[in-house]
Every structure is written in structure tokens, then in C-alpha cells.
Here is the input.
Amino acid sequence: MKFRRSLMVAALVLPGAMAGSVMTPAARAADMADSAVDKAVDAGFTGQERQVVEKYYGKMPAEAQPDDTLPPGLARRDILPPGLAQRDLPADLEEQLPPPPAGYERRIVGDSAVVLIDTATGMVADIIKDILIPGADD
Here is the structure.
């Protein structure tokens, strides 16, 4: 009797447990995308990094800050738009900062923003905006 009850329980539980472990390609892709977003949310500039960058470049006075200092479509947790002009931070600024998290790099984009980008996906993990970047208007 116990054996028969155990068999019935196994017959009811096992298919449900196995079905949960099989993922369709679409479900797997969605899971990977969620993982990338979670990773990006975890990465970001520390308060100290923000201070170093703002001290290096200078912060725009509030009255000089345009309504939108970021290129169209650029926001945290978005993919960096293709063709967007970007460049490396100066070496002497990078030397003042701790290394970025593994798989990330800091870049200057537009004329007044520094971003932290996931190099594998191009996703923007964090943004320091409204800074004065010399030569940005050239």
C-alpha cells in the first residue's frame, strides 16, 4: 500500500518538476535578457567615482544645464545607440579611478556625459551627466 501511494505521488509530482526544468529557446533568451538587466542594475558608479569625475571635469552650474544633456535614446539600462560618438576617458582620469567592474568600461558620450557600459551587450549601467568636457563642442 505504501509503495503504491509513493508511486502515485511520484507520478503526480515528477512531470511538473521536469516540465519546469525544460526551457524553450524563447524562455531561455528572456531569462538571459533579464540576467543582463540585473547585472547592469548591480553595476554603477560609486559616490567616490562620481566625485573624482566631477572634480576632474567640473560640474555644470544648474542654470547652464540644458534640459536634456544626453543624446536622444540614452538612458540607464538602455543599449548604447549605434553610431553614437564616444571616446575613452583620459588616461590621467582613469588612473584616479578604481578599475571598472569586470566586463564594463567607462566612456565619454555626447558633450557632457560619462557612462559605464557593459562591453558584451552595450547596455548602459550608469551615467554621470552635466559635466564640462573640454573640447566637446569642437
User: Anything to note?
Assistant: The chain has a mean pLDDT of 73. The first helix runs from residue 2 to 21. The chain has one domain: 2-129.
